[in-house]
Structures are given as C-alpha cells and as structure tokens.
Amino acid sequence: MRKIQLVSKYIALSEEGLVPRLECPLDQGLLFSNLTLEDEVYLYCISCSYKKFIGSAFYDNISGILKKAGLYEEMS
Question: Are the CB atoms for 41 and 31 separated by under 8 Å?
C-alpha cells in the first residue's frame, strides 16, 4: 500500500471514531493529506495553513495503531 493511501485511510477511520483523530497542533482543526510532485506525503490544515511533511516514524505509528485496532488487514 502506498503511503498516501495509508494516511488517507487512517484519516477516514479517524472520522468514524475508530482510531485517534489527527489534529492541527496550532488550532486543533482536522488535518488532511496530500502528495507533492516528488511523492512526498504531507499533512495540512485548511483553517490555518499549517503544513508538515511526514516521515517513516509517523507511518510506523499509524500502522501500529491500525494493527492494534484490527483494521490494517482490511486495507491490503
């Protein structure tokens, strides 16, 4: 699974209340994911323009959360 798909799935599941929500550290708004032309995934906040590129530790963290919740296998 591509990293952007993993992040998008996580965000969708968080909106259903199945996993913790990703919130903007500046205004606690919902974070969305996007992809640069170089295939770098980043999170951004619509309300305050916060933007953060994410690394491998982030992917490991959300993968672990999804596995604990029993939701990771459904994404394969």
Answer: no
